[in-house]
């Protein structure tokens, strides 16, 4: 009896002690979790606060938001000679007005259903010394500092019906003269006048008439069919254009090409549109017609590529007076990851043009040749580049040839 009572008493004591320990532990845990001296959640809360501070917030949970951009800067060494004893040279720190111009934007969209989606894009550029606006007496290129609008556009896209967009953005033919598979087109393609200081050699002689640029327009693109996409746009009061693009892979070869036509109307004495390459570039009291095209072939195993472009522009400055400008451009090189850091691109290029003045029965000619290298660093979304270009022009009535050369060294980073 005494042993049984002792066993029962000990059991009750053990149960009471265990319950006490459990309740004490629970109370301490609750106190710590409630912030009464504990720090079990402090690190987590701090990390959440950091993420919230660095996140681009959405206006709602239905529409995606993406912040993106690119920063590009270069050092320019240039020299020019008019062939009659005058020469200039200098070193400038510049922005490059190709696709590498520094810019940032916001884009996104949402799905309406499995076939239809909508999207938007806002983009601005920032520059304080555009290379193509510089001159021997102006290293800043007369460029006002600040933001310039590049895109303000909305679109509706159907997988089966195509894409309709409206607002300020690319016209249908924009960039159709700059299709290029070299991996170096950010710094070297058919718009060769964008690396020319505007001095003895006229920049206008080296234009590529590339589409309508960006403007206020309505644009439609068909769905891709067997590698082809047909596009058309209308806007800025006085222009319209169409373009056909093709991109496809055939075994070890990648092929891309495009052709476009643009027309700006003659609007009497005022004009609402610019020229073929920039439909929103001011007013001009005459119309222009341009036919342009480009393409490239890349052999993926070896990296060998060849790219070309050509164009023709007719502009009627006066009744019965039509000027005709033509050019062609070719570039060849290799694109391959030789060093394990990212693809390296090397190239050589050549450009030739003619400007015919029918009323004066004269022709001006221009040529350019160049060499360059681009190195990608994939781990940092970074590119470094170096290029050399030599320009020469022959103008009617000028017994000497004007010459200019440029060396560009720089880098570009995406985010």
Topology:
Blueprint (H helix, E strand, L loop, with lengths): L1 H32 L8 H12 L12 E16 L5 E8 L8 E9 L4 E11 L20 E12 L3 E9 L43 E8 L6 E8 L3 E12 L2 E12 L23 E12 L4 E15 L2 E16 L7 E14 L4 E16 L4 E13 L7 E13 L1
Antiparallel strand pairs: 1-2, 1-3, 1-17, 3-4, 4-5, 5-6, 6-7, 7-8, 8-9, 9-10, 10-11, 11-12, 12-13, 13-14, 14-15, 15-16, 16-17
Write structural notes for this entry:
It is a single chain. With 415 residues, the chain is mainly β. It has a domain at 69-100 and 171-414: Porin (Beta Barrel). 11% of the residues lie in helices and 49% in strands. The protein has two helices and 17 strands. It has a 16-stranded antiparallel barrel with strand order 1-3-4-5-6-7-8-9-10-11-12-13-14-15-16-17. β13 (321-336) and β14 form a beta hairpin. The radius of gyration is 31 Å and the shape is globular.
Brief characterization of the structure:
With 415 residues, this protein is mainly beta.
End-to-end Cα distance, whole Å, is: 84 Å
| Helix count from the secondary structure assignment | 2
Q: Which CATH class of one domain applies here?
A: Mainly Beta
Determine the structural class based on helices, strands and strand pairing.
mainly beta
* Main sheet record: 16 strands, antiparallel, barrel
Relative helix content:
10-25%
* CATH H level, superfamily name of one domain: Porin
Q: How are the strands of the biggest sheet laid out side by side?
A: 1-3-4-5-6-7-8-9-10-11-12-13-14-15-16-17
Work out the oligomeric state of the chains in this entry.
single chain
CATH topology of one domain, anyone? Porin
Net shape: globular
> In terms of per-residue confidence, which ranges show pLDDT below 50 for 5 or more consecutive residues?
1-38
Strand portion: over 45%
Write down the overall mean pLDDT.
Answer: 83
Number of strands: 17
Question: Helices and strands, in N-to-C order?
Answer: HHEEEEEEEEEEEEEEEEE
Global Rg: 31 Å
Level-2 CATH architecture of one domain: Beta Barrel
């Amino acid at each position: 009896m005494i042993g049984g009572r002792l066993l029962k008493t000990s059991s009750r004591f053990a149960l009471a002690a265990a319950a006490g320990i459990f309740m004490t532990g629970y109370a301490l845990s609750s106190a710590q979790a409630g912030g009464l001296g504990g720090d079990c959640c402090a690190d987590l809360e701090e990390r959440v606060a950091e993420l919230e501070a660095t996140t681009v917030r959405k206006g709602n949970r239905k529409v995606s938001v993406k912040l993106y951009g690119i920063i590009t800067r270069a050092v320019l060494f240039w020299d020019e000679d008019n062939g009659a004893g005058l020469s200039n040279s200098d070193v400038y720190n510049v922005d490059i007005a190709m696709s590498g111009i520094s810019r940032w934007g916001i884009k996104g969209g949402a799905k309406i259903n499995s076939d239809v989606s909508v999207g938007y894009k806002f983009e601005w550029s920032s520059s304080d010394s555009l290379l193509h606006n510089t001159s021997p007496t102006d290293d800043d290129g007369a460029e006002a500092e600040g933001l310039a609008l590049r895109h303000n556009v909305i679109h509706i896209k159907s997988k089966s019906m195509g894409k309709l967009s409206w607002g300020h953005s690319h016209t249908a033919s924009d960039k159709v003269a700059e299709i290029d598979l070299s991996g170096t087109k950010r710094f070297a393609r058919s718009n060769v006048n964008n690396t020319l200081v505007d001095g003895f050699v006229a920049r206008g002689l080296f234009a590529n008439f590339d589409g309508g640029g960006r403007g206020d327009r309505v644009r439609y693109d068909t769905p891709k069919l067997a590698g082809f996409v047909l596009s058309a746009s209308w806007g800025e009061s006085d222009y319209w254009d169409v373009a056909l693009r093709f991109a496809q892979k055939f075994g070890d070869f990648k092929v891309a090409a495009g052709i476009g036509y643009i027309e700006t109307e003659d609007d009497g004495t005022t004009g609402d549109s610019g020229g073929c390459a920039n439909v929103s570039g001011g007013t001009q009291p005459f119309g222009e017609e341009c036919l342009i095209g480009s393409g490239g072939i890349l052999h993926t195993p070896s990296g060998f590529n060849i790219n070309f472009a050509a164009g023709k522009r007719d502009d009627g400055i006066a009744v019965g007076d039509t000027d005709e400008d033509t050019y062609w451009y070719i570039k060849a090189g290799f694109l391959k990851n030789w060093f394990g850091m990212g693809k390296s691109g090397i190239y050589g290029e050549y450009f030739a043009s003619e400007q015919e003045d029918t009323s004066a029965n004269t022709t001006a000619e221009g040529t350019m040749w160049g060499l360059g290298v681009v190195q990608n660093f994939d781990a940092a979304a970074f590119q470094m580049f170096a290029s050399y270009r030599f320009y020469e022009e022959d103008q009617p009535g000028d017994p000497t040839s004007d010459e200019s050369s440029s060396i560009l060294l720089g880098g570009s980073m995406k985010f």
